[in-house]
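We were asked to recover a plausible sequence for a given structure. The inputs and outputs are reproduced exactly as logged, with field labels preserved.

PROBLEM: sequence recovery
POSITIONS: 234
GIVEN STRUCTURE:
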């Protein structure tokens, strides 16, 4: 248990470091890209400056049509300046959204990897059960104070497995069927016991809990993968 806790803590610390470094890297890269982009965008007043220069350097443009043309150029420069300003704002917003999306993707990816690692650790070490209380009359099993309502058949199967675990026995499907049905194990089919195990797992509902609680040992049979000292049957 201590080894599992230590490994999980190390995994969390490692995941936190990856998240922090990833966020810093993403922000730094996008900041550099934004600075480079904004520095290379043309000046919003560049067009107006050129038009003003034309006015200053061409005093001979006094005809009505010339003045009208210059006014149109000035208006075009103003429109260009406003458009470029709006483009800058759009680019800034897009960069902010891109940063948020990349940071979110990184966080979710690290969370998924960390969760998968923790699931793998649980699968390797099994469920850490501090108490398993079976109440026959209530048809309820309490696993680490979590209550699971069972059917009559599932309760019988779990009770048989609990009693076998307290005796350090591994039971085949035929033996489970024999104990429940009151017949000799040699007269029962292995598939019947396997069906009872499947129904027990389906009744427990949670796939992780059911698969790790009821272990299937190849060529031997079934057993509860918990310490026999924590089992109580009432």
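RECOVERED SEQUENCE:
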């Amino acid at each position: 248990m201590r080894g599992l806790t230590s490994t999980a803590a190390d995994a969390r610390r490692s995941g936190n470091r990856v998240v922090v470094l990833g966020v810093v890297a993403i922000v730094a890269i996008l900041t550099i890209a934004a600075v480079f982009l904004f520095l290379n965008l043309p000046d919003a007043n560049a067009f107006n400056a050129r038009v003003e220069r034309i006015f200053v350097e061409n005093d001979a443009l006094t005809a009505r049509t010339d003045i009208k043309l210059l006014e149109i150029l000035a208006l075009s420069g103003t429109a260009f300046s406003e458009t470029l300003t709006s483009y800058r704002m759009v680019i800034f917003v897009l960069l902010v959204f891109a940063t948020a999306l990349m940071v979110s993707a990184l966080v979710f990816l690290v969370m998924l990897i960390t969760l998968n690692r923790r699931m793998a650790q649980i699968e390797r070490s099994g469920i850490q059960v501090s108490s398993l209380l079976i109440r026959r009359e209530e048809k309820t099993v309490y696993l680490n104070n979590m209550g699971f309502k069972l059917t009559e058949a599932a309760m019988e199967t779990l009770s048989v497995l609990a009693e076998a675990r307290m005796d350090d026995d591994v039971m085949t499907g035929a033996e489970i069927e024999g104990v429940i049905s009151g017949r000799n194990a040699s007269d029962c089919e292995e598939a019947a016991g396997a069906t009872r195990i499947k129904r027990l797992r389906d009744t427990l509902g949670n796939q992780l809990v059911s698969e790790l609680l009821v272990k299937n040992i190849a060529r031997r049979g079934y057993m509860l993968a918990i310490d026999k000292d924590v089992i109580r049957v009432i």
